[in-house]
Design brief:
alpha+beta, Jelly Rolls, Arc Repressor Mutant, subunit A, 6-stranded antiparallel sheet, 3-stranded antiparallel sheet, 9 strands, 19% strand, DNA-binding
Length: 271
């Protein structure tokens, strides 16, 4: 007996940002694009999922992720119809969810993965699709959509590595400035921020082209210049800025200011 081919589509004027297709269509699609952010799943059967230049053997238990305007297709492997859900979302609605999680975002952030192998998320998505076709109110459906996509984006849409590096650098640089009277080692920074010492060196070289130690020395010298302007003694300034002795202070001050502490201080003597 030939299987009945069907397609059901969920849409609601109260939820204009979402559309859901439930189908066992056997048609083959050419590579195409959508303006939506889309997620699909197979309930029965296998397909070949293509996204840009990659192809995946797409099976039950997997989720296909398609960013807006990505060239893709998803076609059955056999003549038997595969049963599937395909959800389409307005990227601006998605951006609203993303923005609630990542405050610095200035637009929709594309998903990095084409395919997810996550049993919990797969089950949650299946339940969400079933629920959208149910008789509950549109407000309840909206809440479930928000809950699911908040969870999805939190789990998988990490901030960019560059933004993370920028934030790590800013935190460490601020810490060094606030504690410039101390002699803070790389190992101490590593423990304080729970970061690999080689990573700390790399982000300082990338941001300022100097080492963390050199950055701390700069903070010490800047503080020393301020104290000398206030006519504090050279001995007091050296100790206050965390230098081991006056000779150590003199040597480093000359390197960074191209003048001795005494020469620098004399420029600010009031007649």
């Amino acid at each position: 007996m030939k299987k009945r081919i069907f397609t059901k589509i969920f849409n609601d004027k109260n939820l204009p940002f979402v559309e859901l297709r439930y189908s066992n269509n056997t048609k083959h699609y050419k590579n195409h694009i959508h303006n939506t952010f889309s997620i699909g799943m197979n309930l029965k059967g296998k397909t070949i999922y293509s996204n840009k230049t990659k192809k995946y053997e797409f099976d039950v238990g997997m989720l296909a992720i398609v960013n807006p305007k990505e060239v893709h297709s998803c076609n059955p492997v056999t003549k038997e119809p595969n049963l599937y859900y395909m959800l389409y979302l307005d990227p601006n609605w998605c951006y609203g969810i993303q923005k609630s999680i990542f405050k610095d975002l200035e637009g929709f952030k594309p998903f990095e993965e084409d395919v997810l192998y996550d049993e919990e998320i797969y089950t949650d998505f299946k339940n969400l699709c079933n629920l959208l076709f149910s008789e509950i109110s549109y407000k309840e459906k909206e809440q479930k959509l928000i809950q699911f996509f908040t969870k999805l984006f939190k789990l998988y849409m990490k901030e960019s590595e560059q933004k993370k590096e920028n934030k790590d650098f800013e935190k460490i640089a601020d810490y060094l400035e606030q504690n410039s009277t101390e002699n803070i080692s790389l190992e101490e920074l590593s423990k304080e921020f729970n970061l690999n010492p080689f990573y700390i060196i790399r982000i300082f070289k990338a941001q300022k082209n100097i080492t963390p130690h050199a950055y701390l020395l700069n903070m010490k010298i800047n503080r020393a210049k301020k104290l000398l302007k206030e006519q504090k003694s050279i001995t007091f300034t050296a100790l206050e800025c965390g230098f081991s002795d006056q000779s150590h202070f003199h040597r480093n001050f000359c390197k960074y200011v191209a003048a001795t502490p005494k020469e620098y201080k004399l420029n600010f003597v009031q007649d």
